[in-house]
């Protein structure tokens, strides 16, 4: 009996041929009305159902006639075509402009291979200008590997990153993830200034809530004990006008300066990698301890 072998042909010609079927009238049996522009996109039911369980479940609805289009109003037509390209060819053209939305669609449609490709692309394209958007996507979509990669990049480039518009557009959860790190390469006064600007931007344009409420969940990750006594006094005077930092947090910092006793495991008394040395730091733990 002859032994059977499984051999692979050249995948690229196949992918190119399959790509011609995307949004083609040839043998298409399903239509989508996509995005606010209501662009009509044609597809092939059997291909989509065989590659995507979400589409398979969608098409299982026998009440939907073949000539009745599916309305996909919450996705951009170009992004939808990019997703179809991956479904048809197992290849995809990603850019820093579409990768975030394609990642969102890959998760929504359960296309795990496409999700992995998007995550790898975003990891490889991290930059000072893009890392905050990458972090926000990772937090929003629960992509832990991508979040760790983005946070590691921010650790190394903190001083530049906290000055970007992207930092000001982060959610409170994403800012908290950033501030929890002891490897941030910025001094605490600079971090505090960036958090103030973030809170002001969110208060005025994004959440339209008072700064005190916007900053409430974030301020507990600021390490006031790292400030010198004169810096802490200045912060206290500035805080009298806006009251954005809890008095209890300031009192805890003064307590450290009085006793120079830090609590093991308490991040508030742990130096960051970028902390500039001050005489008042006696008793504080270094970031790598």
Automatic annotation (TrEMBL):
UniProt feature, compositional bias: Polar residues: 267-278
InterPro entries per UniProt: BACK, BTB/POZ_dom, BTBD19, SKP1/BTB/POZ_sf
Annotated BTB domain residues: 28-96
Disordered: annotated segments: 267-289
Compositional bias of kind Basic residues: 279-289
PANTHER family for the chain: BTB/POZ DOMAIN-CONTAINING PROTEIN 19, BTB_POZ DOMAIN-CONTAINING PROTEIN 19
Protein name listed in UniProt: BTB/POZ domain-containing protein 19-like isoform X1
Annotated source species: Acanthaster planci (Crown-of-thorns starfish)
Gene assigned in the entry: LOC110985231
